[in-house]
Amino acid sequence: MGQLVDGVWHDTWYDTKSTGGAFKRSTSKFRNWITADGRAGPSGEGGFKAESGRYHLYISHACPWAHRTLIFRKLKALEDHIGVSVVHPDMLSDGWTFSTDYDGATGDHLFGSDFLRDIYIRNDPKVSGRVTVPVLWDKAQDTIVSNESSEIIRMFNTAFDAITGNTDDFWPESLREEIEPVNARIYDTFNNGVYKSGFATTQEAYDAAVHPLFETLDWLEERLSSQRYLMGDRITEADWRLFTTLIRFDPVYHGHFKCNRSRIVDLPNLWAYTRELYQWPTPDGGRVADTINLEHIIRHYHYSHDSINPHRIIPIGPVLDYDEPHGRDGR
Predict the structure, then answer these.
(1) CATH number assigned to the domain with residue range 3-164, chosen from the 4 options 3.40.630.30, 3.30.300.130, 3.40.718.10, 3.40.30.10
(2) How far apart are the C-alpha atoms of 261 and 210, rounded to whole Å?
(3) What are the residue numbers of the active site?
(4) How many Cβ atoms sit within 10 Å of the Cβ of residue 86?
(5) What is the pTM of this model?
(6) Predicted pLDDT at 281
(7) Which residues contact 285 (CB under 8 A, 6 or more apart)?
């Protein structure tokens, strides 16, 4: 995970010495919005009108943040309208690459680039910052729209409804005030908490991250004991934001990131809930499971993080049956 400084690549890891061993995530840099009529969204500039074929999504199957956008692309019937390129699962000294020597890595469909950083430099030759996925690209203006996943999924949620005819709403206005604090807690202690635990370089930083993480898992387990989804009987973006970390937890985060007090399979409500979302049907007749590539997930974390796994040994992992009936229909 290197970074660009004035358009020049530097292979530098996060500086945990200056933070007492704690991992601090960088803020997303590009924050424009696609809207139905092209008007400006909550941040950034306007001019990004929802149009079929105009936008392209760059993702990693390994990354939970990118996975959110892939799920919404499928849930909202956008696969015929927004193209996608998939990076190689290995993120080494050159960061994310477009090498195609691994099954499921597609290369860069738009420009034939070698590295994801080339997309950032194409947008701004003097750009500085981390090179992350997802990236939403506008082919009409030859520019990055956004690299903030939480905002991309909200664009996908409504901006293209008139084009697709899909009006499923995962961020309903009536629930937004309730969704926000749930999202905030899950992001800080769980979605990002696994990284804060796994990338900690002092015992104190690890302890400060891992205990809130499991407090949140206990809170979620209790919450799901009496309701089917996080907001009650209606599935929302909060569920999908949680799911992308849940699906990676037992195969990766439990061992690799030392989040090992308990597994998701040890928490019956969360385990059944994870299976339900994995099996969720999509408008094209498929399932959310179709957006998941566990080979990329397991390979990326164990092969790319040499500070945690210097010998790059890929573990065999647990045997998990996500297709087992979830039994949550009557909840």
Answers:
(1) 3.40.30.10
(2) 9
(3) 63, 195
(4) 25
(5) 0.95
(6) 98
(7) none
